Amino acid sequence: MVLTGLLTGVMLVIRDVERPFSGVIQIRPSAITAVEHDVTEDFIAAYGKNRLPCDEQGRPKRIAA
Fold first, then answer.
1. Rounded to the nearest 5°, which phi and psi values hold at 55?
2. What are the sequence ranges of the domains in the chain?
3. Which of 5, 14, 26, 47 could bond to 51 as cystine, CB 3.0-4.6 Å?
4. Which residue stretches of the chain have pLDDT < 70?
């Protein structure tokens, strides 16, 4: 009985986590945008802007031959 309840609880948590913008565990899309901005700043600080594989619009950079 306990195992069934535990398994059901785990399945409900997994279902909720798979849908991040709805459900009990809910985040706003702006939170993901803020995280993306922070990670980009950290990457640029560590490796420089020229190491990014794309331009400001997200298009792949061309490799100079």
1. -85, -170
2. 1-47
3. 47
4. 63-65
pTM over 0.70: no
Q: How many residues does the chain have?
A: 65
SS3 at position 54: strand
CA 64 to mean position of chain CA atoms: 31
In 3-state terms the chain splits into helix, strand, coil percentages (rounded to 5) of: 60, 5, 40
The DSSP output letter for 51 is: G
The answer to whether 51 and 60 have CB atoms below 8 angstroms apart is: no
Measured distance CA(25)–CA(53) in Å, rounded: 33
What is the chain's alpha carbon radius of gyration, rounded to the nearest angstrom? 20
The answer to whether 17 and 25 are in contact (CB under 8 A) is yes
